[in-house]
Specification:
about 45% helix; two-stranded antiparallel sheet; globular; mainly alpha; single chain
């Protein structure tokens, strides 16, 4: 799969992909299967091509969430007129009356991929010219595709699971059948997460490739099952389940890039030994030029002796930094090892297992801090209260995973704090617990299906 991806987010919307049949019936240049140009997959290779298409056009929305949080600064000094018109209202949380030029987070692309996943799952018994193991692997990937896309949709367009009563809270439409005519209502948030966890379990029974070679490592593998299970349970507040899954990840891949070594790679490169799933772009070129890393964010989060301060950022002037871990096609990462040290540390701390939490945290910090300061910081961490330890781990998570699409979701699942931003002489405020921590359904979706926001408790 090529590392560059075409942006399809502005294509005409039709609820739940009523035009998806273009892929299956009339797109001769995508899969040239029959002389008439009709695309009716029959072989493993043809079904694989359908799924590869969805991998290739994976939404960039986790990267785009950087706009919503506190990592990125926009300024007339370095934000172009085009970027201003496209992204400014997202950055300042103007969701009620954005400019007509404003881009938006995905919807159609997610359900497009979910439809294809459903199609593969429904037709798995018909897949020809592949071994049983190859078919199982492909179907397992389809379950993971469906689970991950529902999970991302829920974290964009529904309230944070652990901040509400999920039984009584509106989620998103859950699609588990390949029906282009379906006009579903939303499910409860609990039902959405139940389906996600069920799909992860199904994938775990089917996936059999432990590690794809570089160039194919955008595909879901056996470790990715534990990765997604850990992240989902973390967001749900299921601490023990998240801890168990993160330990499974680390049992399979505990490697970390050592920033004290001259040959260390940036860990979100698709070639990094930390990279478990190289699927989603991290601050691709069209996002990296929108703004600059916030000086306040860097100064407030990174300590003296933190090697990430110069590894992740390059100081340009006293008031500007460039981002070094984005801006190129090579920065593609959905899951990497460091995240699971941090999940293990956070969940241990929340379970009252301080010693274990610090042990997981220390393994990461030893690779990220100058060795002259790391022991001092770890000694100070051991003196923290249980609550302070959780806060320190969350700060470490912020430092480590900055600009990789985690920060906005972490703000949502923790305190939903007040944020303020300034552009020229105008200030913008997101109050604590603000409704804008959850995106509205796209107007096109509501217009196409007015019952989309109706759901049954």
């Amino acid at each position: 799969m090529k590392r560059n991806r075409k942006n399809m987010g502005k294509s005409a919307y039709m609820m739940l992909m009523s035009v998806v049949m273009v892929l299956l019936l009339s797109c001769n240049d995508f899969l040239d299967i029959t002389p008439t140009g009709k695309v009716i997959p029959k072989t493993l290779e043809e079904y694989r091509a359908l799924l590869t298409y969805e991998y290739k056009y994976m939404p960039k929305d986790r990267s785009l969430t950087v706009l919503r949080g506190d990592e990125l600064t926009l300024s007339p000094t370095f934000t172009s007129d085009l970027d201003y018109d496209t992204y400014f209202d997202l950055w300042r949380w103007n969701d009620n009356a954005p400019a007509t030029t404003t881009t938006y987070y995905g919807w159609r692309r997610y359900y497009h991929a979910i439809y294809i996943a459903n199609y593969i799952i429904a037709h798995q018994q018909e897949i020809a010219h592949g071994t049983a193991a190859e078919v199982r692997q492909l179907v397992g990937e389809a379950y993971m595709m469906r689970a991950y896309h529902h999970f991302l949709l829920a974290n964009l367009y529904a309230a944070p699971y652990n901040q509400v009563d999920p039984v009584k809270t509106r989620g998103i439409p859950v699609m588990t059948v390949a029906d282009v005519d379906a006009m579903p209502r939303s499910s409860s948030l609990k039902a959405v997460y139940d389906q996600i966890l069920s799909d992860i379990d199904a994938a775990g029974q089917l996936l059999n490739v432990e590690k794809w070679e570089i160039g194919k490592n955008y595909r879901f593998n056996t470790a990715a099952v534990h990765c997604l299970r850990a992240r989902v349970n973390l967001y749900m507040g299921n601490w023990q389940a998240a801890l168990d899954a993160s330990k499974m990840v680390l049992d399979m891949n505990a490697d970390l890039e050592d920033f004290n070594s001259s040959d260390a790679k940036l860990p979100n490169l698709f070639t990094s030994k930390e990279n478990i799933l190289a699927l989603e772009p991290n601050m691709p070129a069209d996002h990296a030029t929108i703004g600059r890393p916030s000086v306040e964010f860097i100064a407030g989060k990174y300590k003296s002796g933190d090697l990430r301060r110069t590894k992740y950022y390059r100081r340009v002037t006293s008031s500007t930094y460039d981002l070094l871990k984005g801006g190129k096609d090579e920065f593609v990462c959905s899951f990497r090892t460091a995240e699971f040290y941090l999940i293990a540390a956070e969940t241990c701390a929340r379970l009252g297992q301080a010693e274990a939490a610090i042990d997981f945290l220390s393994k990461l910090m030893e690779k990220r801090y100058n060795p002259t300061v790391c022991p001092t910081y770890l000694e100070a961490i051991r003196a923290l209260s249980a609550e302070e330890l959780v806060e320190e781990i969350l700060d470490e998570r912020c430092r480590e995973l900055a600009f990789e699409g985690h920060r906005w979701f972490d703000l949502r699942r923790t305190t939903m704090p007040e944020l303020t931003k300034t552009y020229k002489d105008e200030s913008f405020r997101l109050s604590q617990g603000d409704q804008r921590y959850t995106l509205k359904f796209p107007s096109e979706a509501v217009e196409a299906n007015p019952e989309i926001e109706i759901w049954n408790e």
